[in-house]
Amino acid sequence: MASNKSWDKIFQDYNIYAHNFNRATFRITAAQIKRACQDFTEVGQKEVRILCKQDSREDRPQVFVERGLFILPIKNGEYVIVKGEGYVDIPKIDKDREAYASQLHFHLDTSLVGNSEMQHLDFAYASSLIRSFMNDNSLVLTIRGRKYTPQFSLKVGSHIINVRGVQTEVDAGYEGKTQVVLVEAKSPSTQNVIIRQLYYPFRQWQARTQKQVVTLFFQKSADTYSVWHFRFNNIEDYNSIELVNSHRFKIVTGTS
How far apart are CA 4 and CA 201, in angstroms? Predict the structure, then answer.
């Protein structure tokens, strides 16, 4: 992994090897990372955004894996390295696939152009699959694109972490009469994901509405649409995530 040498250098330059992660997190800035890696030639070894993008357990550099660490952004240009479980497994769905009858009364030509997670999610919504999964016909698309979190605190183990103004993005957000549903869509090869991608948007939107905020994870493989519903039992506890339910569907249209 290209980032292994970079993070070894960062740990050496700032004496992170000697840090006691059981007692405290380690704060590091983008400027410090950039300074430590300035002599590397490969983009993947010196670009801060790439070095800090550790979206799955497998994306972590070896020094993180060996010490049970993960990294979280806490504000623009600042991060903390944390000891603990930073990821949640996306479990295999053992239930039989259910045939779902699309609520559309016409064929979508444009849905066949391309092969992106966003496109598949849009088709699932247009077919009313998301509404049916949530048993909420009032859901309408209201959230897209990048936003910034308000200030909030979270707990990882015994560590309290303060976050402010971190950029978040969900693939889609739907608001209904009583709830807001946030969806993170990933490729079918994704087996685990950093909890931050679900938790930060959850905290962001829960601070903006009195309605219940719901988090879904979505994948499409071949002609199967899979949906997982996660929740946080304690709004301030990063690791309080648990699976509520999940299901697999085949969307059946009038031309299927």
Answer: 29
Distance (Å, whole) CA 212 – CA 179: 5
Nearest to 107 by CA among 84, 92, 123: 123
Domain that holds residue 11: 3-84
Out of 84, 107, 127, pick the residue that ends a domain.
84
DSSP alpha helix (H) spans, 168-223: 196-206
Q: What is the pTM of this model?
A: 0.94
Q: What is the CATH number of the domain that holds 156?
A: 3.40.1350
Note the Cα 173 to chain centre separation in Å: 13
Picking from 61, 84, 107, the residue at the C-terminal end of a domain is 84
| Cα(85)–Cα(80) distance, integer angstroms | 14
pLDDT band at 113 (very low <50, low <70, confident <90, very high): confident
What does pLDDT average to over the chain? Answer: 95
